[in-house]
């Protein structure tokens, strides 16, 4: 069965509908010249290539050049019990699939939220029917259904030492993955758009919409910071090449308090 990829967000769809619901939502955007659909074949013919790059030990980044849709970077975490593919990109090719297979069997595919669904079902199929976990609260955004999709809630230890949890905020089911062995055993958080690693590498942001600059309330930001404060982590990976290399837990709490202060008007006199 053919499927279609929204050219703007790179989320797979089983049908070419009039407009991608994920892009029409107030968190995203539809191009001025209208909805455009593409396909893996069209993208490959246009020169798209997927790349798998080694990060820290047992972590790889998967991206495409040029960037597909939003242009996210998947993370692949390896454990002795298999790999987690987090935030699957909206493109794949044979070379990348082979490389992922060499790194280790993928045990689960999880997108942090609907903007990051990419071609998650296609990744599942080319990797042999790997389970695709979708947050129960956000299941209505799935536009290509498949028997491999399972919904989840609360905390799930998807692999030994790799825990999925849903602080929410950006989407009701917005998730992060905690990797206890990351950052030399100090712990790493794959936080995607749930907690956005800023370009200054020393602060993070919490937004309903990043492209449309729509902030979350102070109460929700406090809840998100408290939620992830249960975990030990020193490094935080965003869903692009953005990263907080060290002291990430403290930076998340400090950034949350800064956000709350600004939203409350505490700093309006700052020059
Ligand atoms: Zn879209
Ligand atoms: Zn997003």
Write a brief caption for the model.
The chain has 271 residues and is an alpha+beta fold.
Give structural notes.
With 271 residues, the chain is an alpha+beta fold. The protein contains six helices and 20 strands. It has helices at residues 21-24, 40-45, 94-103, 120-126, 218-228, 248-264; strands at 4-6, 12-13, 37-38, 49-54, 59-65, 74-79, 82-86, 106-110, 132-135, 149-152, 156-159, 162-165, 176-179, 188-190, 196-197, 204-205, 207-209, 214-215, 235-237, 243-244. The strands form five sheets. A seven-stranded mixed sheet has the order 4-5-6-7-8-9-10, covered by helices on one side. A hairpin with a 4-residue loop joins β17 (207-209) and β18. α5 runs antiparallel to α6. It is globular, with a radius of gyration of 18 Å. 46% of the residues are buried. The model has no long low-confidence stretch (mean pLDDT 98).
């Amino acid at each position: 069965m053919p499927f279609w990829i929204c050219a703007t967000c790179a989320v797979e769809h089983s049908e070419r509908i009039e407009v991608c619901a994920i892009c029409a939502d107030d968190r995203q955007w539809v191009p001025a010249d209208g909805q455009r659909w593409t396909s893996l074949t069209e993208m490959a013919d246009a020169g798209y290539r997927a790349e798998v790059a080694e990060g820290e030990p047992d972590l790889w980044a998967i991206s495409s050049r040029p960037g597909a849709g939003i242009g996210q970077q998947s993370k692949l975490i390896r454990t002795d019990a298999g790999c987690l593919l987090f935030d699957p990109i909206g493109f794949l090719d044979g070379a990348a699939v082979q490389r992922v297979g060499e790194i280790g069997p993928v045990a689960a595919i999880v997108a942090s939220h609907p903007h990051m669904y990419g071609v998650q079902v296609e990744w599942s199929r080319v990797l042999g029917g790997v389970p695709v976990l979708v947050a129960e609260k956000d299941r209505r955004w799935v536009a290509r259904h498949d028997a491999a999709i399972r919904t989840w809630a609360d905390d799930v230890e998807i692999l030994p030492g790799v825990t999925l949890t849903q602080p929410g905020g950006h989407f009701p089911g917005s998730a992060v993955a905690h990797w206890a062995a990351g950052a030399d055993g100090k712990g790493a958080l794959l936080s995607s758009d749930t907690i956005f690693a800023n370009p200054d590498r020393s602060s993070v942001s919490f937004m309903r919409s990043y492209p449309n600059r729509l902030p979350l309330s102070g109460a929700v930001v406090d809840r998100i910071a408290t939620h992830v404060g249960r975990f030990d982590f020193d490094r935080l990976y965003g869903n692009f090449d953005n990263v907080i290399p060290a002291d990430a837990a403290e930076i998340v709490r400090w950034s949350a308090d800064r956000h709350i202060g600004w939203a409350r008007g505490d700093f309006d006199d700052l020059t």
